[in-house]
Amino acid sequence: MGLSCVEAEEREAAKMRVPIDDYRFLDLDAPTLPAKEIINEETGVVQWAVWCKHCQEWHYHGRGDGHREAHCSKLTSPYTASGYNLTLGRQ
Ligand SMILES: [Zn+2]
What we know:
Elements: H1 5-15, E1 17-19, E2 25-27, E3 32-39, E4 46-52, E5 57-62, E6 66-68, H2 79-82, E7 84-88
Parallel strand pairs: 3-7
Antiparallel strand pairs: 1-2, 3-4, 4-5, 6-7
The chain binds zinc ion.
């Protein structure tokens, strides 16, 4: 019995993932965006902000390198499907 299409696709997708630790990974199919570390003035929580050229707005995530689901508000943004990898950019 061969692999079903879905199984083959899942294996292909898994290859593109580079683990960072037990729960974080980079997705080599997704773009890498430079994040800027900010402190949320209301909560005092440190977050990573990333400028989204598709939405033309900042998206905010918990800090730390790795792949994220896109916080895109524009449905046409290609990040919606791929997500993106965050890494701390130049301040
Ligand atoms: Zn976006």
